[in-house]
Amino acid sequence: MNIQGTISVISLILAPVVMVSCCVLFLNGQLQRYDSLANRIRTMNQERLTILREIDNDVPSALESIDGFRKLRIQEIETQLPHLLRRHLMLHRAALTIGSAILICILSMFLIATSVLLNSPIIAIFALCTFLTATTAILLGGTMIMFELYLSHLALRYEVMHELSLGAKAPSLTKHRKSRRTTRSHHRVWIPLKK
Length: 195
Prior knowledge:
mainly alpha, 5 helices
């Protein structure tokens, strides 16, 4: 193979490199969110144990003798922890999906080089399919992250609304809004004129 052919192969291989760079940046951001959420889960769990330990060393009796603001905070934590764990799992799956997309892009780079070196259209089709699979994986990972972002808003909303209501009426952690049916009367009222 001459120098021109080598340069051509290298330029074809570098096409997925942009995708790999974008995926690495995307994955880096998600790993930071993943770590932040894990730290929040650990902190809330530790806060729950601290509150229970302050009341009594025996867990069943501590749960029965909670009162006031401590009870309110324990309810918040016990409601939020399963929700946070689901979000953590979603971020975990999204990060794995994006990481898989990086590996698939690298595989497509090797397939591109092989197809050029062997001048094989079949391997070139496999390289294209592999690259499209990586693109699909990125789309899937991005969709999971967008859904997790939506759920993170619900968790924040729950915590704020629960604090504002002081536990009087616990808001929902899964629904953003209640569907309200407002009935507006568009009827005109006839008022007789006085004579």
